[in-house]
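Notes on consecutive records. When two proteins share a document, each keeps its own sequence and its own token line. Never mix them. Below: protein one.
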Amino acid sequence: MATASHAFLRCLAPTCLLILTGATMTATATASEPTAVPAATAAPAPGALPSDAEGFAFLEGRWRVFHHQMKDAFAAKEEWVDYEGRARFFTLLDGLVSVEELRTADGRPFGGAMRTFDRTQRTWSDAWVSAGNGVLQLPQHGRFVNGVGTWESEEHHDGKRMLARGVWKRVSIDVVTWEQMFSMDEGKSWKTNWSMRFERID
């Protein structure tokens, strides 16, 4: 099995499915859901802290997570699994850092992410760490535009160049979605292999 250089590709192969013992659920489609766009404000000055529209402060708190995940993104036949989990998000340094912790429905650690904001470039670095090995991976980079955050990176699979993308959408104050997808044709088409729907607990 080929490995990706950025494990923000949270799961492309069956070995990543660590939480199948969680409660099975029916995934809720998110494609048609509107995006909650923060109120328009003047462009932040270079060096300013992230604005509400730019930052991850909206994720602060605890969430119920509904996963819809492909067992093996490269298999000839698509097989999907649905399960539930939990998430916590912390905002540090006045919005410059966002920390994510994911757990299974029964409380076992699954993985997390560390996000840091470049005050000059106005972009985020997003690095994934699996509970399986504890290694912080190379980050993806991106930003929010009109309530949608897009992060991209270049990966390789079986010696072939592959583009990876993670997309955050602010549906409402209490609902957020995330999707992971990849492209084997330089971005002409994209294949989603994992989606999450976050519903706020508190």
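Protein two starts on the next line and is unrelated to protein one.
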Amino acid sequence: MALSSMEEFCNLDRDIEASAKSWKKFVESECPEKEKFPQEWKNKTALQRLCMMRVMRPDRMTYAIRDFVEEKLGSKYVMGRALDFVTSFEESGPATPMFFILSPGVDPLKDVENQAAIENSTSETKDKAREQMLSMMLRSEHMDHLYM
């Protein structure tokens, strides 16, 4: 383990071997980033714990980094912002398309469907208004021919 060659982690490999059961429980945890590290390793700094997590459970780094940022900088840096989809849609067009960069927990489908429903109903309303205007124009034009 390369981490154990650093001074702060010099006995990590030995402690893992000596307390295999507690380390196994930690490593096999569903959310190890929420668990306390075994033995004195729980007293390491947040950055050192992050380094150990990187070695033992790289698959959980996204969550561990999120927790690290929240602990060190505050929750406002990890809270997702709600997208003002209507404004973004209004600013888009044929020359300015919208792109969605998806990440875990983000699904813009509902916003897209809602906007499509609004656009569809608006389009239907406009179509009805156009039909009524055309009908009125045709009637008035027809009437004009009758009076000529």
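For the record: The first helix runs from residue 12 to 18.
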